[in-house]
Specification:
Layout (H helix, E strand, L loop, with lengths): L25 H12 L2 H12 L4 H15 L1
Helix pairs in contact: 2-3
């Protein structure tokens, strides 16, 4: 039994893209990741870590590791 979505709730703009229509490269994924990571709260977190006694390199590595785990 195939699932037929309600046409009032879905259209081509929000429907999932089939696998043959997906053309993102590693560069596209990396750009999206950087766009989501580079923001004011990230800088505030790094500044807070430095304020608590970490070196700038430790703070950057901590934030980078956390973003890799979460995102």
């Amino acid at each position: 039994m195939a699932f037929e979505p309600d046409r009032e709730l879905i259209n081509d703009d929000i429907a999932p893209v089939p696998p043959e229509g997906r053309h993102w490269s590693v560069m596209n994924m990396a750009s999206l990741w950087v766009g989501m990571v580079v923001c004011v709260p990230t800088y505030m977190l790094a500044a807070g870590l430095i304020d608590q006694g970490m070196s700038w390199a430790q703070a950057v590595c901590t934030v980078m590791l956390g973003n890799m785990v979460v995102l």
